[in-house]
From TrEMBL:
Species name: Ascobolus immersus RN42
One GO term of the biological process aspect: urate catabolic process
Family membership noted in the UniProt record: Belongs to the uricase family.
Coiled-coil spans in chain: none
Chain positions recorded as 5-hydroxyisourate binding sites: 230-231, 257
Protein name in the entry: Uricase
Amino acid sequence: MSSLTSARYGKDNVRLLKVDRCPKTGIQTCTEMTVCVLLSGDIETSYTKADNSVVVATDSTKNTIHILAKTTPINPPELFASTLATHFVNQYSHIHETFVKVITHRWTRLDVDGKPHPHSFHRDGVETRNVDVHYQRNGGLNLRSSIVGLHVLKTTGSQFHGFVRDEFTTLKETWDRILSTEVDAVWEWQKFRTLEDVKSFAATGKFDKAWELARYVTLKTFCEDNSASVQATMYKMAQEIIEKAPGIEHVEYSLPNKHFFEIDLSWHKGLKNTGKDAEVYAPQSNPNGLIKCRVSRNAKSKL
Ligand SMILES: O=c1[nH]c(=O)c2[nH]c(=O)[nH]c2[nH]1
């Protein structure tokens, strides 16, 4: 015997670019997004009885994403993701729950001779601004905003010593090393009851401010902290974001520790390239450390 215990479906990797043209100034802006919308509800029979009468075609889901991108604001992405999440539950009485992901890609305005160009942009990095929304009929909206794929590296100001030493340890302690990671930082909002609540919050500019703050705190702490470890540095980042952004309940970081090994070149004419003489390093693609944490407002540590 077996039974269906979970089911959701929809369209992933729906791509769109929206252009905003200001008639007064002639200045144009653009937003490129990749969207995923998954639906859940009374859809079991489509799996268990080949009953397509309960299926909203994923092609229609894709069409709806395009239509709502045209007819409603897509910025901030928290608002667009919430608009999509609530739409499908309002439109179809048998759909009770949605899972929406909106990835916003970077198109940063170009400068020409120090002046912002009115309609030209460049992709300055693979970093994305992401939003995940989970909506349940009568259950409110859970929003998670994030920065993903922000690559950073510092050549000093990072140490790692005092760790466990036993018969499995070969790593040397260091008081000066390269630190590099790809930031994945999530901030989770207090629950919003309705789409109207998300709209009013969006109108205050607080979603954009939180993204700016999270990015600023992450980069400033990365640069300025004389890091004792990835763990200690990420905890400082998370604490500061919670402290400075009301409405955020939890902050999570997931940071790969990308290693750069010293290369001993002494075999060639006694070249010195280790310790304080290290200049040429070997970047490692794998394995990498992976350090994660979740920091919550007003919560007693469960660890
Ligand atoms: O910042 C670090 N944290 C660790 O847990 C760890 N483990 C390791 O080998 N190097 C590092 N660096």
